[in-house]
Amino acid sequence: MFNAFYQRILNSKLQGLIHSLPALLDAWYKDALHGEFHQWQKTLKNLPDAQPSVLELKDKVAFGSADDINQGQQKRLIALLKNFMPWRKGPYELLGVDLNTEWRSDWKWDRLLPHISELKDRTILDVGCGNGYHMWRMLGEGADIVVGADPSQLFLAQFQAIHKYNPSPDIHLLPLGIEQLPKSEAFDTVFSMGVLYHRRSPLDFLAQLKDQLRNGGELVLETIVIDGDQNQVLVPGERYAKMRNVWFIPSCDALVHWLHRVGFSNVKVVDKCVTSLDEQRKTEWMENESLVDFLDPADPTKTIEGYPAPQRAVIIATK
Ligand SMILES: C[S@@+](CC[C@H](N)C(=O)[O-])C[C@H]1O[C@@H](n2cnc3c(N)ncnc32)[C@H](O)[C@@H]1O
Fold this sequence. Notes:
Layout (H helix, E strand, L loop, with lengths): L2 H7 L11 H11 L5 H10 L8 E2 L4 E3 L7 H12 L9 E3 L2 E3 L5 H8 L10 E5 L5 H8 L4 E5 L3 H12 L6 E4 L12 E7 L8 H11 E13 L7 E2 L14 E2 L1 H10 L3 E10 L16 H4 E2 L2 E5 L7 E8 L1
Parallel strand pairs: 2-3, 5-6, 5-8, 6-7, 8-9
Antiparallel strand pairs: 1-2, 3-4, 9-15, 10-11, 12-15, 13-14
Helix pairs in contact: 3-7
Bound molecules: S-adenosylmethionine (SAM).
Organism: Saccharobesus litoralis
Catalytic activity: carboxy-S-adenosyl-L-methionine + 5-hydroxyuridine(34) in tRNA = 5-carboxymethoxyuridine(34) in tRNA + S-adenosyl-L-homocysteine + H(+)
Protein name: tRNA U34 carboxymethyltransferase
C-alpha cells in the first residue's frame, strides 16, 4: 500500500526513513485495521474514473469540473463519497461536486500563510493532518514533498478518494501517530495544527515535533489557547466543548515558554482568533453536532461546560 511512498523517498532527504517505516506500516496493516477499512477500500475502487481537466491547489483544492463526467457518474461519486462521512476538513471541489465540509480549513490556511517561511522546494511533515486538506495547499505553494501523519483510518480513506483525482507522487499520508514516527531530523517545515490539546504530555509532543526537523527548520504549531500569563494552563474536566480527549490548553505565553524549554528559538505568536460559527458548522457532509452545539446557548463566549470558548493561536518557531 505504501510502495509509491518508499519509491519517492529513495534518494531524497527522507531516505533514512526507509529503514524503519516499512516494518511499522506492515505492522499497522496487519494489526491495526479498523473494521470498516476493507469496506472503505472497496468503495474507493468503485469511484468513477475521470481525467480532471483542471487541478487547482493555489487558492482552493479543486480537481476537475462537472463536464469531466456524466450526470450518472456524478451521482455515483456523491453517493460513494457520502460513505466516508463525516467530512470534517476541506472544502474540496471534485468533478463539480462541492464537498462542503464541517470546517473552513482554508480560513486557517489564509491566516497562517503570510507568516511562515516560503514552502517552495521544502520537505514538509504535517502531524495530525486529518484528511490532508492543508497538505494539498502546501503542495500548491510549491513544496517538494508533503508527508502527513494521522492515525485515523477514515481520514486516510478520505485522502485516498481525493488523491484518486490528483495522483501526485509528492503527497503521502501515513496512518501513524507522531509518537510512532522514527526520529528523522529531516524535514524543513513541520506543521502540527489542532493536535497539541489531544496529547497527554504536551512537552514530549513538542520534543517529538522537534525530532522531525532539521537544524534551522521551522515549526508551525496551531492549537486552542486561553487568555492568561506564562503560568496559566487549563486542564479541563472530563470534557471540553463536548470533546473527551482534551488535556492541556495553555495561554500563548505558556506555550511560548514550553517551546523555549524544549529548545526552540525565534518563537513568535503570529495569529490568535476566536473560532466563529461560520468556520466550524454542520453541513450536508457532516451531520453531527458542531461548534454551535458545543457552546453555552446563553453565553457563546463559554463552552457548554463553562470554560472559555475555543480560541486558536498559530505559533512559529525555529529548531
Ligand atoms: C482537530 S484535528 C486537526 C486536523 C488538521 N491538522 C487541521 O488543523 O485542520 C486533529 C487530528 O489529529 C489527529 N491525531 C490524534 N492523535 C494523533 C497523534 N498521536 N499523532 C498524530 N495525529 C494525531 C486526529 O486523528 C485528527 O485528525
